[in-house]
Write a structure and sequence with these properties.
heterodimer; A: about 1050 residues; alpha/beta; seven-stranded mixed β-sheet; six-stranded antiparallel β-sheet; 31 helices; B: about 150 residues; mainly alpha; Four Helix Bundle (Hemerythrin (Met), subunit A); nucleus (chain B)
């Protein structure tokens, strides 16, 4: 029970301790890393430690330890971090030892305390036991004594005061026998009368026996058996005698014995008659029974004496002596029998009248507990002193309670301490691990940086010689070569270009991997970008006879803010893939707002598979975005249900009628370097990372990419992207000169009506889209007859007619009929839309009629505008070439532009200026960043600036920053696109001045030194609309 | 000497210079930049390059002679030289410059000195070759022929 109690207490205490322990440990843990992050935090850390110490060591040494801890740690931390760590660790170990020792001390002191308490308790119980016994013994003794006293009065009354005496031996014996219960402690009572020597003879005669002496008896104690009264000698002559005349039956043998002759008795008798009180003898062996006993003696007086009578008066008045024999041994034993716990206590009774030699009255010498208690006994005789000694029979039991509680406490405390210690150790270990991992991480990062650096360097290093190779091949092409040689050279050049683009892709992938890819946020025109992309692929598509078309919904804003380059990269990649795998049919790019598409899902019925651009079946576009999260989230409208005015969600689809992707390969097409199967790369080239890069880029534009592909029917890739609305009606847009090239001729054709004759609604829609961009009103009809009726009967005069090639070719008679009939009215201009030049020529040669203008698809607003201008203005001039040479367009872009070239190196400056002049630009050269700032302080007439980056005094970045500041300060009303002069960095080192770095300082781009025509064109075309 | 022969000689010489790496594609690009509006463009640029080279080489020699050597200063000169050599297409000079810059970065004085000597060598070789080239061109022009483009 007590054990349970102790354990329960221990658990409770343990729990109470545990909760703050947990708190503190977690707190320490939280702070731990802070501490380790830097030596600066050490103050903090040691404070923390101080607290911890305070908690653990709530003993006297606490303050000292704290001070020491703080001081020592503080200093050491600052000096040697590692040494500090080791020190701290060893201190934790020492602390742990101190803690254990501390708790050992606590628990042992508790043990001592508890065991001493137990002893005390035992002592108390012994004292109470002892006192109880003593009191009872005393009480019983007193009862007996009183009775004997009463008997003395009886004798005085009935023996001495009556003549003749009313009592004889027989009466006395009977009376005493019957009243023995009143005197439980006496074994016998006897009465001795006082006889003077003079009266001896008469007395002896009267009694019939002689007075016998007792001392011999005392000297030679005899056994009960041979005890014979007759053997006693008669008493010698004395002054007076006190022979026993009456005795209780039990001690009848003492009758006639002179009590005064016994030494003990004599003393007793004399004292009794002097004091008039009951007097006790020292314990002695009783006659006959030979047991220890004492005799109580009362004197019997002739008359009643006053309480202040002198001893002499008392002696004179003495008549006799009444004695009671107390058999102490048996009496005490009897008494103890009646009491509880008699077994456990050993009782000894001593007569201690003589202090130096106490006489044992009762008790054996059995060994017991060494501890005993002494109680004084008062038997009514002031002369005699008695004591009772009590002791426990058993040795004190083991203090189990104390042992359990202290051991339990120690165990709990040590456990808690160990938990703490283990936690701290664990923290040290995790700290080590952390440091180690930080080290590894650093190394890994370094390796990663090295990798990117390596990639960039290597790719740069490859690019440079590749440019040499390409340049030489270019030159070789211009020499006299036979057909085979030319073929070889062209192949080599193609491979070289592929290699360069591959390197660029790898660079992109490396950038994405290292998270360095950042998107720009500039204003751009989506439609213009698509026109560019079309231009890029038009040659290829025409060569293959694949129809290429772009349709952008009217809902899409003119100006968007985002990263045009990356957007273009995605589109280019998807279209590149499509054109690679498509041999017939079409490739169709559509751009809508997500909201439109989502609504159309509900509104439009499933369109038939025949209704496509080229008439070939296509994969169902809807299935390509099935996986998009944004669509599937909350119903069909998803997260696009509330279009915000700022954000523009575009959905772009690239649909082709190519070979499609085999089903088993569809799952891994977005994995880098995965291709459908290895033979593809041999057949079509490519690295297989294009799609993975596209996916990353789409992800960066907060969009998703998906596809559907049916083998031998085609694939449709769809992606969404989020841009910001950059149209003028929305208030903000980043300052950037905008490439607004498609609007060059829009006003010219305002109000013109056009007719498109095309049996396929989708294709007609594409044509209408491009014409509408030129501000031309468009009517759509599906065949020539309808067209004719519309022209002749229509309300508004139709000045331009576009006829799809297949309509024109279907029946030449209808065509000529159509032409002839249109001539009657104000003849509209006729344009034939063809897929590729070669396919049309054959059929149109023999038409004989005034040749309608042929427009080769893909349609592009700018190209349409030029063609229309020529056709309307100058008249028919046959089909125009719409494929421009890059250097020619550079000419277009740069002609007449005023350009500032900043380079400290005169050679570089001259070469750059020469190159720009070659393209018709008006070049001013200066040699320092400072001059550049001065020159470009608005207002100025420069259209652009090419700036070297590494210059003494003020480098290109700094100069740009200043120029931008100037522009910003000049530009009060927020319309700063006018003042913003494009600044392009010139750099020889791709890695050193990456695009991002240039952009950060306010530059608009960079070109590598020495100039490469293509790159120059790409950068410059972003700022200058072709003139 | 007749013009055709001269022209062939010029072509061969130029091809040899390209082959041996004295010049690279950039030089041909330069020649393309030369037209009626700037007939002496290449010569102008190259002369500029010569002046620049001599100045920079002197600067480098002086900078390397100082105690202690200010490698940053040397590196700046080499960087400049690398830029101008890249612009005219002096490939070998440019390559030596790249090595030179590495030595500057590691503060290897011995390497730098060696590179400087190499640079001087390369430069004089290049200069001789180019001067010969220009002489040939002059002769052709004097003989009334046209300078063949470098395809």
């Amino acid at each position: 029970m007590s054990l349970l109690h102790v354990v329960g207490f221990g658990l409770k205490v343990g729990h109470l301790l545990w909760v703050p322990c947990c708190l503190i440990v977690s707190f320490i843990y939280l702070n731990w890393f802070n501490c380790n992050l830097g030596i600066n935090h050490n103050h903090n850390c040691s404070n923390n430690n101080k607290w911890k110490m305070g908690f653990l060591g709530d003993y006297d040494g606490k303050v000292w330890l704290n001070n020491w801890w703080e001081k020592n740690l503080g200093n050491t931390c600052k000096q040697y971090y590692y040494k500090y760590k080791m020190l701290r660790r060893s201190w934790w170990r020492k602390l742990w030892h101190a803690y254990v020792v501390f708790w050992i001390v606590i628990s042992s002191s508790r043990f001592l305390h508890m065991s001493s308490e137990a002893t005390e308790k035992r002592k108390e119980s012994l004292v109470s036991l002892c006192d109880e016994r003593a009191r009872m013994l005393q009480d019983q003794f007193n009862v007996s004594m009183n009775h004997i006293q009463a008997m003395s009065i009886l004798i005085s009354t009935f023996h001495h005061a009556m003549d003749p005496s009313a009592i004889d031996q027989k009466t006395f014996a009977r009376y005493t026998e019957r009243t023995a219960f009143e005197r439980p402690l006496t074994s016998g009572v006897a009465y001795a009368v006082r006889v003077l020597h003079s009266e001896r003879e008469q007395f002896e005669k009267q009694q019939g026996w002689t007075i016998k002496r007792m001392d011999t008896l005392e000297q030679n104690p005899v056994q009960e058996d041979d005890f014979a009264l007759e053997a006693l000698e008669p008493s010698p002559i004395q002054e007076e005698y006190a022979p026993v005349i009456f005795a209780q039956e039990t001690i009848k043998h003492v009758i006639s014995v002179d009590v005064l002759s016994g030494k003990e008795d004599q003393e007793n008798v004399l004292r009794a008659r002097e004091s008039g009180k009951g007097v006790l003898t020292a314990p002695f062996r009783l006659l006959k029974t030979n047991r220890l006993g004492v005799i109580l003696t009362f004197a019997v007086y002739k008359k009643e004496l006053p309480s202040n009578a002198t001893p002499d008066e008392r002696i004179q008045a003495t008549d006799g002596y009444l004695g009671g024999v107390f058999d102490i041994e048996s009496l005490v034993e009897k008494l103890l029998q009646q009491l509880a716990s008699k077994q456990s206590v050993i009782v000894n009774v001593y007569d201690t009248t003589n202090h130096t030699d106490p006489i044992a009255m009762y008790g054996s010498d059995v060994l017991g507990d060494e501890f005993y208690h002494v109680s004084t006994l008062n038997f009514g005789d002031p002369f005699r002193k008695h004591e009772m000694h009590c002791r426990f029979k058993q040795k004190p039991p083991w203090p189990w309670e104390a042992i359990h509680s202290s051991v339990g406490m120690l165990v709990i405390a040590v456990l808690i301490g160990y938990i703490l210690y283990a936690t701290v150790n664990r923290m040290f270990i995790s700290e080590d691990n952390y440091n180690e991992q930080m080290e590894l991480k650093k190394r890994a990062q370094a390796a990663d940086v090295a990798k990117s650096q390596f990639l960039a360097t290597v790719s740069h290093e490859i690019r440079t010689p590749m440019n040499g190779v390409l340049g030489m091949l270019n030159m070789l092409m211009d020499t006299d070569l036979d057909v085979t040689q030319q073929e070889y050279v062209r192949t080599a050049q193609g491979s070289g270009k592929a290699l360069v683009s591959l390197i660029n892709e790898v660079l992109d992938q490396a950038k994405i991997d290292s998270g360095k890819l950042e998107l720009e946020a500039v204003v751009f025109d989506l439609r213009a970008i698509l026109d560019d992309v079309l231009l890029l692929f038009s040659e290829k598509s025409q060569g293959k006879g694949v129809e290429l078309a772009v349709y952008v919904s009217d809902e899409v804003p003119e100006q968007l803010i985002g990263d045009p380059g990356r957007f273009r990269q995605i589109i280019t990649n998807l279209m590149g893939n499509s054109i690679k795998f498509t041999e017939k049919g079409h490739i169709f790019v559509t751009i809508h707002l997500v909201e439109e598409v989502v609504h159309s899902i509900e509104v439009e019925p499933q369109s038939t598979s025949k209704d496509t651009l080229s008439g070939y079946p296509v994969a169902d576009i809807r299935r390509s975005w099935e996986g998009f999260k944004a669509f599937s989230q909350e119903g069909p409208l998803g997260s696009f249900s509330s279009p915000s005015s700022e954000l523009v969600n575009l959905i772009v689809s690239v649909e082709d009628t190519g070979v499609g992707i085999p089903l088993e390969a569809q799952s891994r097409i977005f994995t880098p370097f995965m291709q459908v199967d290895p033979s593809i790369s041999r057949k079509h080239g490519g690295t297989g990372i294009g799609l993975s890069i596209s996916k990353c880029l789409v992800g960066r534009m907060n969009g998703e990419i998906g596809f559907v592909s049916i083998p031998n029917i085609g694939s449709t890739f769809t992606f969404t992207a989020v841009f910001t609305n950059g149209s003028p009606n929305s208030k903000e847009g980043r300052s950037q000169p905008i490439n607004n090239q498609p609007h060059l001729a829009s006003s010219e054709f305002h109000g013109t009506n056009a007719l498109v004759i095309d049996p396929r609604p989708i294709r007609a829609k594409v044509s209408r889209y491009h014409l509408q961009r030129l501000d031309i009103r468009v009517e759509l009809v599906s065949d020539l007859d309808q067209g004719l009726s519309l022209i002749t009967n229509g309300n508004s005069p139709i000045s331009i007619v576009f006829i799809e090639q297949e309509v024109w070719d279907r029946d030449s008679s209808i065509s000529s009929h159509f032409v002839n009939n249109t001539r009657k009215v104000d003849p509209p201009k006729l344009f034939i839309l063809v897929n590729s030049n070669s396919s049309f020529r054959a059929s149109s040669v023999n038409s004989g009629d005034p040749f309608p203008v042929v427009i080769t698809k893909p349609l592009k607003a700018s190209m349409l505008a030029v063609t229309l201008q020529r056709a309307m203005g100058v008249g028919n001039r046959g089909n125009t070439r719409n494929v421009e040479l890059p250097s020619l367009s550079l000419h277009h872009l740069l002609r007449g532009r005023r350009i500032l070239v900043v380079d400290d190196n005169s050679v570089n400056r001259t070469v750059a200026a020469g190159a720009l002049k070659k393209y018709g630009a008006d070049v001013v050269c200066i040699s320092s960043g400072k001059d550049a700032v001065a020159k470009l302080n608005p207002p100025h007439q420069f259209d652009a600036c090419f700036m070297d980056i590494q210059m003494p005094e003020m480098d290109g970045f700094e100069a740009t920053r200043r120029i931008r500041e100037l522009e910003a300060s000049m530009d009060g009303d927020g319309n700063n696109s006018k003042l913003h002069v494009p600044i392009l960095a010139m750099t020889a080192d791709v890695m050193q001045a990456t695009n991002e770095e240039c952009l950060k300082t306010g530059m608009d781009g960079y070109v590598s030194k020495p100039f490469e025509a293509e790159q120059l064109y790409r950068e410059v075309s972003r700022f200058f609309p072709p003139s | 000497m007749d013009v055709l022969q001269l022209q062939r000689k010029l072509r061969e010489h130029q091809a040899a210079m390209l082959r041996e790496g004295f010049l690279d594609d950039q030089f041909s690009q330069l020649q393309k930049l030369q037209d009626e509006s700037s007939p002496d463009f290449v010569i102008e640029v190259v002369k500029m390059f010569f002046d620049d080279s001599e100045k920079l080489l002197n600067n480098m020699t002086r900078a390397l002679g100082q105690v202690p050597v200010d490698f940053k200063q040397v590196d700046a000169h080499v960087h400049q030289y690398k830029g101008s050599s890249a612009s005219v297409g002096a490939a070998r000079v440019k390559n030596v410059c790249a090595t030179f810059r590495n030595f500057c970065e590691t503060q290897n004085l011995e390497g730098c000195v060696r590179c400087l000597q190499q640079l001087q060598n390369e430069y004089s070789l290049l200069k001789n070759n180019l001067q010969y080239l220009f002489r040939l061109q002059e002769q052709i022009q004097a003989a009334g022929g046209s300078i063949p483009t470098i395809e």
